[in-house]
Amino acid sequence: MKALTIKxxxxxxxxxxxxxxxxxxxxxxxxxxxxxxxxxxVESVYxxxxxxxxxxxxxxxxxxxxxxxxxxxxxxxFNQELNLKNPLVxxxxxxxxxxxxxxxxxKYEEPIFVKGKLGLWNYxxxx
Length: 127
What we know:
This protein is of the alpha+beta class. Helices cover 19% and strands 43% of the residues. It has one domain: Hypothetical protein (Archaeosine Trna-guanine Transglycosylase, Chain: A, domain 4). Strands 2-5-4-3-1-6 form a six-stranded mixed sheet.
């Protein structure tokens, strides 16, 4: 199954339902289920922004799953729509990069500790 390693707080924001787009500089044609893997690092500058959300940052583990439904090149209009939707989560300028639309997001009760990788990678275990 495909997996994507994402740094926290972003991975936790996705799994907890605060973030439905993951931003990447590269386009993906893949559509379907992916595992959300929280990387070993937490971007503390951004984590402080979300203190009130009381997120539990798992590190180095698959923490849930989602469906990649679409991959959208962000233009000015879409960037503004995102900022209006949730300025705390989407407040950065994402023009010129890709927004991966995630749906059917599910949080796992127990994390699966495994080493992550760059890009979309294959996790070879039965879930």
